[in-house]
Amino acid sequence: TAAPSTAPTPGGATSQGPISDADITAWKARFNDVLARPGEHLNSKSPEGAQPWTNSFWAFFNPIDTCLMTWCLPCVVFGKTHYRIQKSPTLAGYEPINTSCLLFCGSTAVCMQWLPMAMQRADFRAKHNLQGSCLVDVALACCCGCCDIVQMDKEAELRSASIGSVSSGIQQQYQPDGGMSYPAEQKQ
Asked: Which residue stretches belong to region Disordered (predicted)?
């Protein structure tokens, strides 16, 4: 039997089903960076003046559909968040089963799901100048992974929406209404 053929992707890399060569390369580079400088990463913190997270870590139940989806299929929500952060804020071209989703499943099989979760959280914090540290990222991923995934997904969605509204520019300038008017006096 012949081996399955690979299909070219827009970036020129080849892809076989839900696996993206570019995503594999990016995750490998990130893992290698962490392994090459563990002390630097472990002691990393957000800079002074970092913004607080908009969504509370403990508000994982709102919206309930995201909470339930994360409880049942955390890999899909993790992959969606990664896609929104790294590729398309609008989720253009998103597939529920993707490289990050499969990475999460594989790491869960060996009880290491906290590692990609903490790495994704650190990348997101750095990208949006959010408060936190590596130790907090690891603790959140280890102690309450579902809450962590939900918070990341909601925060990524919120920030993607704000990026979209800024990039679309001003649609229409302020238009005052007709001003104040007084009802005409009624004659009796």
From this structure: 169-188
